[in-house]
Amino acid sequence: MSEPKPVVLTERIDDVLLLTMNRVKRHNALNVALNHALGEAVRQAESAGVAVIVITGAGDKAFCAGGDMLEMSGVEPVPDDLPPPGQRLDAATEISKTPLPVIAAINGYCYGGGARLAVECDIRLSTQ
């Protein structure tokens, strides 16, 4: 299955950085590429002058359905264009380390790794 590019959509609105997980067909499940890209965006936000980060999921069904089980089981390969495993970022860890306030705008399913992302955020708002 081809991935949408990019897997994280970024939108800057004044001092707010909106990060949208963009894997709608997979209910924004965290694969290695999404996890790294989201972590990278969070890590770079402070130095870019961002005051607040908002994280949400693309589509209207899911914030994040957890880990991508097809990738974890080896059915689908990890993309080749990522840093080596020891240099990849973990989004939840980067959220917990940033001094910026992070808001989870939870718009549907929020399971497993998605719940971990939400828990690491300072504020959680849900449509459900």
Overview in brief:
With 128 residues, this protein is of the alpha/beta class.
Give an account of the 3D structure.
The protein has helices at 32-45, 69-72, 91-97, 112-120; strands at 8-13, 16-21, 52-57, 62-64, 102-106, 109-110, 123-126. The chain is of the alpha/beta class and 128 residues long. It has a single domain (8-126), classed as 2-enoyl-CoA Hydratase, Chain A, domain 1. Helix 1 runs parallel beside helix 3.
User: What's the domain count?
Assistant: 1
Structural class: alpha/beta
What is the β-strand count? Answer: 7
Low-confidence stretches: none
What's the mean pLDDT score?
A: 93
- Most strands sheet: 5 strands, mixed
Beta fraction: 25-35%
The number of helical runs is 4
For the CA atoms, what is the radius of gyration?
14 Å
Shape, please? globular
- The ordered H/E elements are EEHEEHHEEHE
Give the helix proportion (percent range): 25-40%
CATH C-level class: Alpha Beta
Q: What is the first-to-last residue Cα distance?
A: 29 Å
CATH level 4 superfamily: 2-enoyl-CoA Hydratase, Chain A, domain 1
Strand order of the largest sheet: 1-2-3-5-7
Q: Just name the CATH architecture.
A: Alpha-Beta Complex
CATH topology: 2-enoyl-CoA Hydratase, Chain A, domain 1
